[in-house]
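User: Second chain of the day. Same drill as before.
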Amino acid sequence: MTKVDGPGPGAEARREPSGPHGAGGAGREPDPAIPPGARRLIELLGLAPHPQEGGWFRETYRSADNVPTAAGVEAPGPSGTGPTRGRPLSTAIYYLLTPDSCSGLHRLPGDEVFHFYLGDPVEMLMLHADGRSERVVLGPDPAVMRVQHVVPGGTWQGSRLAEGGRWALLGTTMAPGFDPTDYEAGTEALLAAFPAEEATIRRLLPRGSLP
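Assistant: Same format as last time:
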């Protein structure tokens, strides 16, 4: 596990914008059961609990430029502004997993690029539209793990720490950018569609989605 020390050079000048994902971790203290390294990252990076997916996150970038949408729907504008027509060119977030959390199964219409930054390996399950399932391990050893990985749009995805892991810090980017209305949470219907992955799907389905 990577040791987390104080912020590096230039940290005082760093500015991380907030957005529709939330303004950061203010207002909620991390659970004392969360490993110290993860708590330190939550404080340093201003992470907040993800309201849909699970885990901890912060939006760090939302382009001020927008891609017009066919329907001309309103999308959140840059921090401190009102909604704009279209979708941001790109968005980026930090994303932290701990032993008591997972990235619940969900899918987005656009490609999402994952970046592994620090910590322990993360196991990702992808359920493809053609009926295939795929497992990927993101982690610090590029010989046997991915330090970057693309989840294609329309693919169900969920992640958790590998067995024995304490925490992992990832990042994701999307272009065009993420819009909260895109998020589709997995349901128990995935159990019938991918029976070979039943055990893992049950662990990754959002709480309350099973009878």
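Residues 16-204 form a domain with the Jelly Rolls fold (CATH 2.60.120.10).

User: Great, on to the next one.
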